[in-house]
Write a structure and sequence with these properties.
single chain; 412 residues; alpha+beta; Beta-Lactamase; Alpha-Beta Plaits; 3 domains; five-stranded antiparallel sheet; four-stranded antiparallel sheet; 9 strands; 54% helix
Amino acid sequence: MGGDIRVEQQKKSAVMRIGYFIDSILAGGTDQTITLEQGDSKEELELIQKLNIFAKRNKALDEYTLGLAKGDLTLTPHVIIPSGLLELHSTLLHFIWKMNQISQGDLEQRIDGMGQFSAAFNDMVEQLRKRDRELAESRNVVEALWAYSSVIIFVTDAQTGEVIFGKREGAGAPADTSFLATSQNVIEMLNKRMRDVTESSAEWDLYVEAENKWYKVKTMTMSWTGDHHKVYFHMLFDISEHKAIQVKLESEIVKDPMTGIFNHAFGMETLDRLLRLKKRFTIAYFDLDGLKKTNDSMGHLVGDEMIKTFVNIVLGMIRSYDLFCRMGGDEFMLISDEGSAETVQNMVNRIEEKVNQFNAAEQRGFVLSFSYGLAEYDTLSNLSSQAVVDMADKKMYRQKNEKRKAISQLVK
């Protein structure tokens, strides 16, 4: 009785192992095998061995299928593969061959008999044919522009920078490429600019120092049909006159027309910028003494000369990165974002010395003199730009009043 129970348990164990194996295969497993155990019957052993062989082939088939999915077409199957998969493998190899032919310029390739895949592939090839025709037309347009346009044109190889086309003469004139010998630096600038941008076209202003000219440059990337290499197509329009007008207008906006130094608006804008940047700076606020008296007694031309003389003296004493501006009438402001109050005070002292030297040496009919006040902005303060100016302005007027009192005492 006990022996019958053990046999029944062994049979049940073999059946369960086979059941677990089949469940695992159905769930997508590929590494499963059934272990052989003592007591398995001959029929069970044969079934288990066949199922293990099936598991091995299933794993090989799974690896082959995953390889195809990842694009590895070099796989060689070591087990019997379903004919559909083998046909797919062959089709993919044929597809790659056709794509290589297309990359070499053969746009006559087609794929048939693969439903939506064929339709998409053939549509792609047709689009490439259409683009190729458009490029051919573009090349004809370039050649026409080269022969008849007054626009300066460069067509350069994107890799080597070599000029393929180049023209400079006016409409109807014969093509003249002799200027290219002296334009190599311009060509290098054009090509470098395109290599630095990600878009297929770009537009910018270019200054050519050798010619003292400004050009509006319009450049696009295109393929040059025939050998299918990438080129840059540059068109240069002379905008020198426009730039000159623009510079003049911009200068008039920020410059004082009489002295040529910066005006009140630009001075305050500079202070606002320094405040936004949290930069420490010092200003000196000047007022010419006696300008109104000079204007009333000697005329405005002499008063203007007095202003210009003072401006020239200051410009000769300050550093290139200091900013000097006319705030209006007889008032001026010096801005230094590189110097402390002590540094600016030393500059003012040198300006005073130069003014005294001028008064001693020159006989212009007027005596040059000025009052001033300093204000240093600390990044920890919350002053506005106008508050900084007012601080220096008050110190300047305090000095001016002290001078008036001193003169009054001398008169008495």
